[in-house]
Amino acid sequence: MYSFRNDYSEGAHPNILQKLVETNLVQQSGYGEDEYSLAAKELLRLKIGHPNAPVFFLSGGTQSNLIVISSLLKVHEAVISAKTGHIFSHETGAIEATGHRVITVDTKEGKLNPADLKKVLADYSMRPHVVKPRMVYISNSTEIGTIYSKAELTKLRAFCQANNLILYMDGARLGHALTADSNDLTLADIGQLTDVCYIGGTKNGALIGEAVVFNNASLAADFDYVLKQKGALLAKGRLLGIQFLELFKDDLYFTLARRANMLAMKIARAVEEKGFSFLTKATTNQLFPILPKTLIHELSKDYQFYEWEAIGEHSSAVRIITSWATEEQVVDAFIAAIKNSK
Amino acid sequence: MYSFRNDYSEGAHPNILQKLVETNLVQQSGYGEDEYSLAAKELLRLKIGHPNAPVFFLSGGTQSNLIVISSLLKVHEAVISAKTGHIFSHETGAIEATGHRVITVDTKEGKLNPADLKKVLADYSMRPHVVKPRMVYISNSTEIGTIYSKAELTKLRAFCQANNLILYMDGARLGHALTADSNDLTLADIGQLTDVCYIGGTKNGALIGEAVVFNNASLAADFDYVLKQKGALLAKGRLLGIQFLELFKDDLYFTLARRANMLAMKIARAVEEKGFSFLTKATTNQLFPILPKTLIHELSKDYQFYEWEAIGEHSSAVRIITSWATEEQVVDAFIAAIKNSK
Amino acid sequence: MYSFRNDYSEGAHPNILQKLVETNLVQQSGYGEDEYSLAAKELLRLKIGHPNAPVFFLSGGTQSNLIVISSLLKVHEAVISAKTGHIFSHETGAIEATGHRVITVDTKEGKLNPADLKKVLADYSMRPHVVKPRMVYISNSTEIGTIYSKAELTKLRAFCQANNLILYMDGARLGHALTADSNDLTLADIGQLTDVCYIGGTKNGALIGEAVVFNNASLAADFDYVLKQKGALLAKGRLLGIQFLELFKDDLYFTLARRANMLAMKIARAVEEKGFSFLTKATTNQLFPILPKTLIHELSKDYQFYEWEAIGEHSSAVRIITSWATEEQVVDAFIAAIKNSK
Amino acid sequence: MYSFRNDYSEGAHPNILQKLVETNLVQQSGYGEDEYSLAAKELLRLKIGHPNAPVFFLSGGTQSNLIVISSLLKVHEAVISAKTGHIFSHETGAIEATGHRVITVDTKEGKLNPADLKKVLADYSMRPHVVKPRMVYISNSTEIGTIYSKAELTKLRAFCQANNLILYMDGARLGHALTADSNDLTLADIGQLTDVCYIGGTKNGALIGEAVVFNNASLAADFDYVLKQKGALLAKGRLLGIQFLELFKDDLYFTLARRANMLAMKIARAVEEKGFSFLTKATTNQLFPILPKTLIHELSKDYQFYEWEAIGEHSSAVRIITSWATEEQVVDAFIAAIKNSK
Questions:
Q1: Does the pTM exceed 0.80?
Q2: Cβ separation of B202 and A235 shorter than 8 Å?
Q3: CA dihedral in degrees (A184, A188, A190, A193; nearest 10)?
Q4: Domain interval for residue C274
Q5: pLDDT value at position A116?
C-alpha cells in the first residue's frame, strides 16, 4: 500500500536531519534566541522583501492560525473565511475557542473575493447586535487545491485596506501555490499584498514548523507574549530555526514544492486523458479527480487516498496528494493503473 | 563560555536523531496514529503501571499544562498551585487565558501539602461569590529543585480524593526527581498517586515532547478534541513517538536524568566543602547555591547561569543546571574554579 | 407616531410596578435569596410540573443564552441553531465569545427538525478535527414568529435523547407561543420535552427578567457560580422575583401574551383580506406581511416598524409586533389604513 | 431583626419608583436609546466635567468590571488590584474567566500606591514569560471602607500615565466616598484623575444600575459591542436611564450617600466612646468595629451583620453597613444597645 493521503506521511528532507545531527551538541540560547533561528528569520525577511518584518516560528497550522488571529482581534471582532477554510472546517473550533466567530462564505473554488466581503459587511452592519468583521483569512493554495492570481490578491487587498480589514494568508501549502504552472505571484508579492502570512514547513519537507511573517510590522508588537501564552514557544527553538534555514537555503523549499506539483500534474494529465474530470481545477499538489466507483475500488487495493464527496450514483471525487517525498515510480505505476482501467 | 543556564541548551540524545534518520522515509499515518507513537504509548503505559491509561504526546510544558487544565475544569473552577509553580510564575497567564484562576499558596520549598489545601478551601468557601477549587497542580521536581517524598505525595493524594480535587503533576523534570538520591518514588507510584501527570522529554534529552498520562482514564474521554483545538496535534506525530520510544528503551530516560543529577551533586559537594549554603536543598539537577558576589563575578567570565535572588548585601543565590548533555570535564573545571576561589 | 417595532417599547405591567412600590422598604436578603424570588421560583416549578427544578432569574435573553450554554458545554463542544436563531443572528457573537461554535442550519421556518440534526452530526463526524455537537438551541416562538407543535418538539426531543444532545429552548416569547391559536403545547409539556428552557419576561410585561428552568436538574449543579461569574447575579434579586410572582399570579403572563397575539391576528386578517401574503405564517405577535412599497411608505408616516427584506422590486416584508401594551384603538386605526389603501 | 448587612436590603428610592410609574406607558426606543437614558448620560457628563465622555449604563458591579476590563485588555495583558479588591475577592473569577490574570497586591487599607505598582512592574518584567500589567483597578470607597485622598489619587494617576497603565476606578460606593467627612475629591476630580470609572447606583438607592464613564473617550470606541456581547444591554434601557436621571436630579445621589455616612458615623462614635477600636478607620458607610464576642452575641439577637474576622480569642471585627434607607431610630436603638452593654 502506498499513501497519497497527504503531504506529511514521511519525515523531513534529509538536509534537515543532517543539519540537526551536525549542530546537535552546540549550546544555544532557548526560546527561539538561538543563532539558527535568528539567521533563518533574517533569510526569510530577505526573501519576502521586508527587512524589518517580525518573523516567528510555530509548530503547526492550527497553532499558527489561532495565535495570529487571537492576537489581532478584539473580543467583539470576527474573521471572515471561505466555508472550506481550514480554520472553519478542520480545526475543532480553535478560533471560536479563543472567543471569535468565523464568518463563513460559500465559494466555488475556496477563494474569497471583494464581492464576498462586501456582502459580509452588509450582513454584519447592525451594530452592536452583531460582531464586527475585522480580518480576512485566505489560504494559498486553498484547501481544495486552487490558487490566487496576482490580480485576485491585489483586488482583495485593496478592498481590505479600504475597509479596515486585516488580510491574513494561511500558507500551509504556500510553496505549492507559488510554484504552480499557472501562478503569477512571488513570495515578495505575498509580502506586499498581505498583512500577515505564514509560510508552511510541515507540508513541504519539515518535521514541524510554520513561519509567521508580519508584513505589517506594527501588528506584531506583542506577539511574543501570545506565542508563549498559548504554549507555542519551544524551549529548543533551534529545531524550528534549523529547518527553515535548510528549507530556504538555495530555495530548497520551492524545489520541493515544484517537484510535488510536477508529480501531481503527471497524474492529472493521465486522469484527463482517460476522460475524467475534476471537482476543482488541477493546479497544485492536491488533486480532486472524479472517478468511477469501480476504479476507486480497484485503486484502493494498492493506494491510499480520501474519498472526498459522492458525485452522482456511480462516481466520487477523491483527494490525491503528492509531496516532496512521493516516489516517482509509484506515481508512474498509479498512472498506469488509471490508464489500464476499463 | 559554557552554559549552566538550563537543561535545553543542546539538541537531542543521539539515539533519537539516529532513529529519526533511520525511519525518515517510512510512510506513516498522521496526527499521532503512526506506529512509533502507538508503540511508545504502549511502553509508557507499561512503565507507569496502567495498561489502559490514555497517553498523549505534546510539544512543551506550557502547552501540556494549559491543555490538561482547561480540558478538565469547568468555567467556574480553579487550580491551586504553589506560588513558585510554573503555571503561575512563567507561563504568561496561560491558565487564566483559558478562563481559570490559579489560586496560589506561599510555600518554603515549592511544594504543597494538605494544610495548604485546607486553607485554600476555607478561603474559597463563600459560594457562589468565589471560584471553586477543583484541581491541584504540583511539580516534581519543583521549580526550585526539590522533590516530593512518597509519604508527602500519599498524604496529598488522600486529601485530594477526600475533597474532590483532581491531582495533576507537572513532570517537566520528572526523570530528575525519580533518580535523585533521596527519592523514594517510582514511576509506577506516580501512576498510582496522581490523576494525571506529564513525563517531560524536552528537559531530559528530547528535541521536544512531553507525555501526558491519564492515570484516571475517565478524565481523558475527550482530550483528543482539546489537543487539536489548542493547536497541539502535530501532523507528523512520529516526531514525538520516536523520541519517547527511544527515551524509554532500556530506561535511557532515567540514565540521562541520573547523570545530570550526579554532575549537579558533584558541584553541590564542592559548594558545601567551600562552606557555602543553598537557597533550597541540593537534590536534583537544579542547584541554588548562595555565593559571594565576587565569586559570581569571577565565575561569570567563563560560565553562564542565572542570578536568582540577592541574599544580603554581598551574596546572591544563583541557579545552576546540569543536563544529560553537560560535559563532565567542564563540571570539573567549574568545581576547580569554586575551590580555588579566595 | 406609534411604534410596532417591538414588544419592549413600554415599561412593565402596572401590577408589577404596584408590587415594587408596596414592598419597597421591606428588608430582604440579597442575591436572589429574598422571599419574593423564592416564592416565584416555587410558583414556576409548580406551573412547569417539576417540583424540584432549579430556577434562576436573569436579566435578559442574550445573558440567559450565553450563561446557560457556556455552563453546559465543555471547551470542544458546540451548539446547533437555526441560522435565524437569536444566538447566531443578534447576539454579537456572545456564544463564540465563551469559546463555542454555533453550528447553523438553514431552515424555512426558523425551526430545527431531526433531519437537520442528523445532517449536522454527519458533517461533524471527523473527530478530533471538528467540534463535538452537544446542544440544540431552539426558540419558541421563533425569531420569525413561528411555533413548534407538540409532535415536532416530541420528535426533536427523542432525537436529542438518542444522540446525547442537550435540548435548550429560548422562550423569550414563550408566552406568545403557548397562547397562539394553533398551539398544542403547555408549559408542562415544555417542562417534559426540554432539558432546560427560559421563560421570557422582558417581552411580555416585565421591566427585565427571564426565568431559566432546568427541567433536567442535574445540569444545574453549579449554575449559581456561573451566574455570578458572568455578572448576572443581581444584588437586589427582589426586582426579578417580584416580577415573576406578579406575572404568574392568576396566569397574567398568558393573559398578556394572548392579548398581544389577538391584536396581531386582527392585523393579519386585515392584511389577508386585502390580498397580501406573509413571509412566514402569521401565528403569534410577530407578523411579517409582504406589502407594496407604496403602502409601506404611506403607513410609515404614522407607524414605526422594521422593513425586513425586499421581495421583488415593488414589495418588502415588514415586521410588525404587538405586545401586552399595544393599544387596540391604534391597531384599529392601523387596520383601517391598510384597508383604505389603494 | 434589623439588617445592617449591606446597602441593598431595600428597594429603590421612592422618587425612582414614582418616575417609573409616571413614564411607564410612554413608548421609547430600546437598548439604551430611550430619551431618559440619553438625558441621564448628558447629565452625568456635565457632573463629571467631560462633555464628550461616553457613558454606558450597566446592571451591576461584577458585570461592569468584567466588561470594562475585558474590553480594554489584550489577551496577554493583566490588571493589578489590591488583594481585597472586589474583582479578586468576590466576583467568582469573573476577570480570569475573560482570560486575564488579576495581579494582587497585599495592602493595609485596601488601597494601591505607586510603590505597589512599581514592585509589580519589576516582578513582571521577564517578557514574554509573564503577563503584561496594563491596567490598575482601584475601588473608592474600598471594600474595607477606606477612601482615596486627592493627593493619593493624583500620584497614582501620574504613575499610571508614566507607565502606560490604564487607571480604572470601581465606584460601587463612590457616593459614600465623595461625601465622607475626610474626603477632598469631587466627581469632577474623578473625571480628571481616572481613565474610566463607574458610578454605582445599586448600593446608593437604585434598583439596579451602574454608570460606566470613559473619561478617556478613546477607550470606549467599541464598548457598545462588548456590552451587547456580554449580555448587558437591556432591551428596556429606560429602567437604567430613569434611575440615574432621578439620582442625579438635585444631587439626590450625594444626599443619600451623605445620610448613610452620617448614620454610620453616629454608630462609629458610640463604638469609640465605649472604648472599642476598628479594623480600618471609620470613614464611610461601612464600619468594621472590633467588638467583644459577648457583645456581638447580644447584638445578634436583634440585628444582622457579618462577622468579618476573629481578632484574638475574645473579639471579632464585624461589618456594619448603613444605607440611604437605614432607619435613624433603629440606629439609635443599636447605639443604645452598645452603650448599655457591660
A1: yes
A2: yes
A3: -100
A4: 254-339
A5: 98
